[in-house]
Amino acid sequence: MNIVIFAGGIGSRLWPLSRKNTPKQFEKILGDTSTLQLAALRLQPDFSWENVYVATGSQYVGIVREQLPKMTESHVVGEPVRRDVGPAVGLMTAILAKEKDTEPMAILWSDHLVKKEEHFRNILRTAGEAVRENPNKIVFVSQKPRFANQNLGWIGHGEKEFEKNAISFFAFNNFKYRPDKPTAEAYLTSGKHAWNLGYFVTTPKFLWEQYQKFCPQLSEGIAKIAATWGSSAFEETLTKIYPTLEEINFDNAILENLNPEDAYVISENIEWSDIGAWEALKEALAINEEENITKGDVKLEDSRDSLVYNFGKQLVVGINLEDFIVVNTTDVILVAPKKSVSKVKKFVEKLEGTEHEHLA
Questions:
Q1: What is the distance between the alpha carbons of residues 219 and 209, in angstroms, rounded to a whole number?
Q2: Intervals of CATH 3.90.550.10 along the chain
Q3: What are phi and psi of 210, to 5 degrees?
Q4: What CA–CA distance (Å, rounded) separates 32 from 316?
Q5: How many whole angstroms separate alpha carbon 61 and alpha carbon 68?
Q6: What are the phi and psi torsion angles at 36 (to 5°)?
Q7: What secondary structure letter does DSSP report for 74?
Q8: CA-CA distance, 11 to 2, in Å (whole number)?
Q9: Distance between CA 38 and CA 57 in Å, rounded?
Q10: Overall CATH class of domain 2-276
């Protein structure tokens, strides 16, 4: 099975650590390893490095190759501009369809934490086996919900269709992005909803057919790029055509049009967390809500439920902090209540065109 890890986002929700020139997936947020490295390393030893691909921005290709030196060099694909996830997934799908269109492929992301790594690998292997037997299906891999999360997408599923390697495959019902609190609480208690991780396994042939059916103009442009894959003309063609592609989200392009009968859902506890935002990182690392999470030279007194990350050399002291996020870098200090961290991305966008644009 081939595996594509997407690592092209800017990650402004983790600003000021994550910036345009040094996005979050390349930063050492957890220990001395970047989240991109964690995403690739958790696949070992079950999946060969030769079957791993990374889709990123062209300006980050060198960083990816440096952080993942065991990867096949040509398997790092750099998009010349950002055109949202629809074209990004479509391009990798078309490339793998040219390689071997019925070989299962998994789509993963580079800014997540998965604590049950062995179980996760078993799920991927099992989903791959199921797709080999049902090449015109897509299998969504989701996390059993731990709480009524309003900041994530949810996936609804029906009854169990079959079981394989002790993994249950359920009928697919629908998606819901960021539900309100009553809806999220209802999902949590229903037993028929899970957190949507954006992970799935399918065949390039099946997914490419969906692109041709639902996004004919987009797929036509992508096909011209993929036709040059493996040749000296690839980079030039990619640079010329990719910026002209329609900018569209993958959900809007494909998932909203997908026939529910063509999909299965796996809902398992892999202890997954989205660590793409400071409050999410705090939730992922804390044993309980009261616990403070710190990094670097930090001293806290009479404080609870706070995250304080110090990437600078000076000591950071917090007194009577409650539900706070404090992030200190060499040139920016962020201080905000956890409930206000959702405003960080909008603030960073406001830096464009100002004297502080270089900090974005």
A1: 9
A2: 2-276
A3: -70, -40
A4: 20
A5: 11
A6: -65, -45
A7: G
A8: 25
A9: 19
A10: alpha beta
